[in-house]
From TrEMBL:
The lineage of its organism: Bacteria, Pseudomonadati, Pseudomonadota, Betaproteobacteria, Burkholderiales. One of its GO terms (biological process) is 'de novo' UMP biosynthetic process. It holds the Pfam family CPSase_sm_chain. The active site is at C280 (nucleophile), H364, E366. SUPFAM superfamilies: Carbamoyl phosphate synthetase, small subunit N-terminal domain, Class I glutamine amidotransferase-like. One of its GO terms (molecular function) is ATP binding. This is Carbamoyl phosphate synthase small chain.
């Protein structure tokens, strides 16, 4: 019933080679190797545009158990450059499943490897920091030779460093579009299942797309926001000409620092006093636009159980995270205050302007499948738009 999988290897830039089996498309892929500790949500992780040019290792050992469906996607395609897992079950089972993870990876042409020691790999990344790697997945019958291994290490070494890379432009929408789809429900009042539609918009939000995740747009629509999603390079004047109640700065891949066009647009929008909310890359861009600095972390935060403390209330939330850069707390100017901090490593997780209605969060308050502890930040954004309207 099951054919023997072809061999695959993962080579790191430091020369380490892990051997496993191919579970996706044959071929070669390179990127920054990162690890994500989430137990659920592999489909949402693969389709998150912030994973562009990254090879994602999932530390949870069984991945693919519930298959793949057409609804749980954060964008229109798999965005991660490759997938690294311990074990792909030969059978999947779920009432929503439409195909297996392996079929999905092959259909999308994504190279992926299973059967290697993901714990050893993760320990190496934790100790030495994130580094570039290459996955080579052979075709059935092809032999794994020393030449293949050497080529893979060379490919890992040749891959570009994430620091300094503007990847937002590579994932952004080419044209503006409107968004009104609301959150997924198992059972709506009318008995239907799935996503809903915003009937009566209360606010108009312009969302800068640096690689936006769909669930962010759904959570805005759920709260009465009609969203116009605009390309990353949209000048502030064009965004403001749409007369939005609020501006949203999305998550996205790569280094925030080279995104000078976005930093300039954010600075203008914030200066004008338009309520502004930034998530992840958008939060970093807001910080840079306000005069703070960002830096590359050792191995970043990628997972679904990161405790974050709200410094205003003392409340601790469990959050979803996916970032390799962070805002340097020591660099905050007088107009920015720290609002949230990571309880894993003390790094900055949230900021707010002291002089304008603008705030940002480093983690993912929209996380689907969760956790949902920090969804209140969307309510805060809506509150700022309400207040601005009352003036
Ligand atoms: N999820 C994101 O928006 C990630 C932001 C940025 N690319 C980082 O790695 O820090």
């Amino acid at each position: 019933m099951f054919s023997v999988p072809a061999p695959a290897i993962l080579a790191l830039a430091d020369g380490t080679v892990f051997e496993g089996v191919s579970i996706g498309a044959p071929g070669r892929t390179t990127g920054e190797v990162v690890f994500n500790t989430a137990i659920t949500g592999y489909q949402e992780i693969l389709t998150d545009p912030s994973y562009r040019q990254q090879l994602v290792t999932l530390t949870y050992p069984h991945i693919g158990n519930v298959g793949v469906n057409g609804e749980d996607v954060e964008s229109g395609a798999i965005q991660a450059a490759g997938l690294i897992i311990k074990d792909l079950p030969p059978l999947h089972s779920n009432f929503r499943a439409e195909q297996s993870l392996g079929e999905y990876l092959r259909r999308e042409g994504v190279v992926a490897i299973a059967g290697l020691d993901t714990r050893a790999l993760t320990r190496r990344l934790r100790e030495h920091g994130a580094q570039n790697g290459a996955i080579v997945a052979l075709r059935e019958g092809e032999a794994l030779t020393d030449a293949v291994r050497a080529e893979a290490v060379a490919a890992a070494l040749a891959a570009p460093s994430m620091a300094g890379l503007d990847l937002a432009q590579t994932v952004t929408t080419a044209q503006p579009y409107e968004w009104t789809e609301t959150e997924w429900r198992l059972k709506r009042e009318d008995g239907s299942r799935g996503y809903g539609r915003l009937a009566q918009p209360r606010f108009h939000v312009v969302a800068y797309d640096f690689g936006v995740k769909r669930n962010i747009l759904r959570m805005l629509a759920e709260r009465g926001c009609r969203v116009t999603v605009v390309p990353a390079r949209t000048p502030a004047a064009d965004a403001l000409a749409l007369r939005p109640d609020g501006v949203f700065l999305s998550n996205g891949p790569g280094d925030p620092e080279p995104c000078d066009y976005a930093i300039a647009a954010a600075a203008t929008v914030i200066e004008r006093g338009v309520p502004t909310f930034g998530i992840c890359l958008g939060h970093q861009i807001m910080a840079l636009a306000s005069g703070a600095r960002t830096f590359k972390m050792k191995f970043g935060h990628h997972g679904a159980n990161h405790p974050v403390k709200d410094l205003d209330t003392g409340r601790v939330s469990i959050t979803s995270q996916n970032h390799g850069f962070a805002v340097d707390e020591a660099s905050l100017p007088a107009t920015l205050r720290a609002t949230h901090v990571s309880l894993f490593d003390g790094t900055l997780q949230g900021i707010a302007r002291t002089d304008r209605p603008a705030f940002g969060f480093q983690g993912h308050p929209e996380a689907s499948p969760g956790p949902h502890d920090i969804g209140y930040l969307f309510d805060r954004f809506v509150g700022l738009m309400e207040q601005a309207r009352a003036v």
